[in-house]
Amino acid sequence: MATASVDKQSVDPLPGPPSIPHLSKDFIWGVSTSSFQIEGATQEDGRGLSIWDSYGRTGQVRNNDTGDIACDHYHRYKEDVALMRTLGIQAYRFSVAWPRVLPNGTGAVNEAGLAFYDRLIDELLASDIEPWLCLYHWDLPQALEDRGGWMNRESVAWFTDYATLIGKRYGRRVKRFATFNEPAIFSLFSRSFGTRDRSADDKLNRWIHHVNLAHGAAVDALRAQAPGALIGCIHNYQPIIPSSASEADVKAAALVDAYWNQAYPDPQYLGEYPQAIRAGIEPHMQPGDLARIHRPLDWFGLNHYSPVYINSDPSALIGMGWGPKPAEIPRTPIDWTIEPDAFRDTLLTVSKRYGLPVYVTENGYGRGDDEKPDEIGAVADPGRVDFLRSYISALDAAVAAGADVRGYFVWSLLDNFEWDSGYSVRFGLTYIDYKTQRRIPKSSFKWYADVIRLARGLTPAA
Ligand code: GCO
Question: Residue 145: inside a domain, yes or no?
Fold first, then answer.
């Protein structure tokens, strides 16, 4: 039986840098965050409610955690940008909270909300860090959910207005935009993925199509407002592995692959839905829709953690269940398998399939509540360092084998609100003491700073 690896709290010497002879000097190193997971200030300066504010009040998030304070980044963004400067990153990926700038999702604009992102963007630019702005990292305005959310085709128009506002306001200073973060994940999971409600399948198809249309329309809106901007979408693309060689498991895995990995990037980048889901999408398709979705893009964003093991469950949504993971594969403390070779293969797959420069917009290592400062106040996380080291080396191997990968962003700069797990799971290079909001860079922070300096031909910090 494999057991979850547990970090020692001692201050062992850090492992050396990864082997990256194939990465060019202008490879982009960064970190990623998202609005709801770090900002807090959910009831300040006119912000409207998001679906995650509502969900947090249903008792379904571990420990009843909410995003009300989170990392208090709304007030501490300067300190957080200073951390980024110390890291030496070239780019910072963040998202805008739609309900902060449009409290009702459409209509009246909240100037105070827009001004927050002005301050953040200006601080980044003054620090020589390129802002990478993602429009949607899951915090849909509750007011729009009340009107049917992504199930309503009007969502395409709502998202277009929002994209226009963002492009107009920030397009002179921001040159990198992503439309959505992991559309497959928020679709599958919020449409009861893995539950027994097969009747939800058609709703899922309708929802997917609307989000794809919203993506295409937002690309056009951003291009109109921010000429010369480089635009992409961010996908959570992982190998989907059948738990056994049985025909039913293999079939279930193939269908999950179509939904999880291809339902979004295929129409967005290639102009067609994967064969396996075409019939399901068809009833929601109107003439010209594929061309509306398939707008020219500049890059592909890949979020990758580990493969997904699937077996068949005919009664569940899209006929899948979570299959057992092979016992011999090592796991992170939150039980995600550590498989850097799968990362290398995925980079090769998406680079070849979509034919655009790939940026790894998320990769990282989660650990539970037992990650805390030791008696001298340091947070040693050798498990995270080993993980990042092996994944960055795998990235180099993918480049050596022909993948066009131009950047890598660690998830995440800070420990933060990890969706259903609340604050009980920590992904940061920086430890957050939620009682005091004190930020403590972990040993992985220093290690990553050294990796970046070495990669750029600079000497490591003392
Ligand atoms: C996702 C999101 C992040 C998560 C991270 C760790 O992939 O689910 O983009 O918001 O926090 O991936 O689970």
Answer: yes
